[in-house]
Specification:
heterodimer; A: mainly alpha; 67% helix; B: alpha+beta; three-stranded antiparallel beta sheet; 6 helices
Chain lengths: 67, 321
């Protein structure tokens, strides 16, 4: 009876295991990557100068006061 | 999970490493003396090399932090040190698996194993130091100085110490020529006693017939526990023929040169795995693995750096790491 640890089969079992682990790690990393990009983008949008309230006051000189 | 604009490169990286894993098992040939266990070097060695690169990068960012006092440099140093530590743990695990198959135990305090454990402890202390200081400015300054000193010890622990030690079982000669990789010369008329690693050898005779040149060499293992006579030989083309095994070890004695008339020989101790990269398929898969794991390290670094950067912006004085 052939088992997973037989000499001819074990190498395929090891390769499949390694590939499954890698696919899992890769998908996990891709999700974290997307999540961090979202957070960083939201943070940038909140702090970008275009969203900051623009100064509306203007300085007026009163020349008559000096004359 | 919806794909985005920059995901193409990352998916290519995923496929690249998947191809490396496939090739590691089904394209790379078995190694003489190591069997299938030797395939692990395709992952183990690149990961160990990239560990040193990550720690080195971390030290550079720490130096920049000390120079410019910009917290983003400190963030980069932490991210690189974390990637280095992760890779170092991975190298230790893959090395232990190799040790179990080839040496019969996961951990036997071989100089190589001990030095990588010390390196892990040094960087564990780096993270412990960071978490033990409350004041953020002081924490960054202390950690940066410590990190530079840690990086100075790294090349000694990873590359020098294991090669200086005579008793290591680690197959160093697979990639780099070390002090014991050229073998030693013995002569019946001169120095006929020598030492290979911690084994004393004595040349007894050199004979030549039509097909083989044979050297008879007496071997005394450490503590004189095992004394044996080995007869390595060269074929008529001058290539090693018989490679007898040292008593109780997986190392083999190989005859590199022999002159029966002059009574001189050059012999070496051949560890399992020596000259692995002489096979072109192994070499190309090994190079592909280096590239793949380097790109993966860079990706991990980018992710971790972004997270720490966000943390820095949100809580400038309270970084948890």
């Amino acid at each position: 009876m052939t088992t997973l640890l037989d000499a001819g089969v074990a190498i395929y079992v090891a390769m499949t295991t390694a590939l499954i682990v890698w696919i899992g790690v890769f998908l996990f990393l891709l999700r974290i990557d997307h999540a961090t990009q979202d957070v960083a983008r939201q943070l940038n949008e909140r702090t970008t100068p275009t969203d900051m309230p623009q100064p509306r006051a203007s300085i007026q000189t009163n020349d008559s006061a000096h004359s | 999970m919806a794909l985005r604009k920059g995901d193409g490169v990352k998916i290519f990286l995923g496929l690249w490493i998947a191809a490396v894993i496939y090739s590691m098992f089904l394209v790379v040939p078995q190694y003489v003396g190591l069997g299938d266990a030797g395939r692990i070097i395709i992952v183990h060695v690149p990961v160990a090399w990239i560990t040193s690169a990550a720690f080195f990068l971390s030290a550079i960012y720490s130096s920049i932090y000390l120079w410019k006092r910009n917290p983003t440099s400190d963030v980069a140093a932490v991210a690189a040190a974390e990637v280095g530590t992760l890779y170092c743990i991975f190298a230790t695990i893959t090395g232990s698996i190799f040790a179990e198959v080839v040496w019969g135990t996961f951990w036997n305090w071989d100089p190589r194993e001990t030095s990588i454990l010390v390196l892990l402890l040094i960087y564990a202390a780096y993270f412990a130091l960071r978490s033990s200081v409350d004041d953020s400015e002081r924490r960054r300054r202390l950690a940066a100085v410590y990190n530079i000193f840690a990086a100075v010890t790294m090349p000694f622990l990873l590359f020098v110490a294991p090669r200086v030690a005579d008793s290591t079982l680690h197959p160093n000669c697979a990639f780099l020529q070390g002090s014991k990789c050229d073998g030693i010369s013995l002569s019946l008329n001169g120095a006929k006693i020598g030492q290979l690693g911690d084994v004393v050898i004595e040349l007894k005779s050199v004979t030549k017939n039509d097909t083989l040149t044979q050297a008879t060499i007496e071997v005394r293992m450490p503590g004189m526990k095992n004394v044996a006579t080995l007869v390595p030989s060269l074929d008529s083309a001058g290539k090693p023929a018989d490679r007898p095994e040292f008593p109780g070890q997986q190392f083999r004695m190989v005859l590199l040169e022999a002159d029966a008339t002059a009574g001189t020989v050059r012999v070496n101790m051949q560890a399992p795995g020596t000259n692995l990269l002489s096979n072109p398929r192994t070499l190309w898969v090994f190079l592909a693995s280096n590239l793949g794991f380097l790109a993966l390290a860079f990706w991990l670094y980018q992710i971790r750096r972004t997270i720490l950067q966000v943390q820095l912006v949100l809580t400038p004085g309270e970084m948890s790491i």
